[in-house]
Amino acid sequence: MGRKLIAVLVFIFMLMPGQGFADKTSHIDKLDKLSDEALQMVKLHRYEDAKKLLEYFSEQFVAVNGKERPFTMDELRIVTVSHNDAVQATVNASMSHDERLNNVTKFRLVMDAISSNYQPLWTEMEKPIMAVFGDVKEAAYSGNNENFHSNLNSFLSLYEVIYPSMKIDVDAERVQKLNARINFIDHYRPQVLTQQASQQELEALESDLQTIFDEMTEDEADPSLWWVIISTGSIIILTLSYVGWRKYKGDKARQKNRS
To answer: Fewest beta carbons within 10 Å, which of 70, 185, 194, 255?
Structure first.
């Protein structure tokens, strides 16, 4: 009985997701961790330490990409640009702390989007982004010029933080459509404040944004996790059924021998 239980546990362990690809994914996970550590340093105003971590990231990134090539061309371009922005944020003393934090956060979200297969971190920005966009709409409909410009600028800053990581996870055509609406609202601010037809772009943009966030977070569990639950559950049920059947046969045999 003990040997059978051990065999079942070993078999379940072998079925756990990611085991067969541990060597391949561990390098990307390490890069992801480095981006997080750099962000933590910036939060603490330790810009020099963040710079060193980002430089070390660059060395490791070149080594990983040269050996395994785990990145697509689009990913390479996005990582390179966001990494450069993050490095500049750690050395540019003229930037405010919030600007530095936004640039390094942007890089952090990019690496998470690449390493995550389920609900990337950038989707956690849904509440602040949708909240400030609601303020943009309210200011536009009430004709409050000052609040409209202020809230729209805040929205654009937040959107810029998630934009690179969104490009990794969302279809390019949908992102382009989103950008077209945002550019229209930004470029034609006076019309959006005064014309009902232009204000319809606000409703359309809000709907597009909400749809993207909903689609990225609609599943409550990783599909691979459900596969493991179903697979291991079936194995356990079959094993217990077999053990129960063997026990039943053994009991019947003992009763027969006593008779």
So the answer is: 255
Q: Which of 115, 144, 175 is the last residue of a domain?
A: 115
What's the confidence (pLDDT) of residue 257?
Answer: 62
Segment 211-238, tens digit of pLDDT: 999 999 875 445 555 455 455 455 555 6
Closest among 54, 53, 65, 73 to 28, alpha carbons compared: 65
| 123 and 109 both lie in a single domain | no
How far is C-alpha 199 from the geometric centre of its chain's CA atoms? 31
CA 199 – CA 187 distance, rounded (Å): 13
Q: Are residues 165 and 142 in the same domain?
A: yes
What's the domain range around 172?
118-218
Which are the contacts of 132, defined by CB distance < 8 A and separation ≥ 6?
Answer: 151, 154, 155, 158
For the domain that residue 36 is a member of, what is the CATH number? 1.20.120
Residues 214 and 122 in one domain: yes
Q: How far apart are CA 184 and CA 162, in angstroms?
A: 19
Residue-wise over 135-167: b if at least 16 C-beta within 10 A, else e? bbbebbeeeeeeebeebbebbeebbebbbbbbb
Q: Which of 173, 164, 179, 52 is nearest to 112 (CA)?
A: 164
To the nearest 10°, report the CA torsion of 107, 111, 112, 117.
150
Question: 154: which 2 tokens?
Answer: 């805040």
- The closest alpha carbon to 235, from 5, 3, 54, belongs to 5
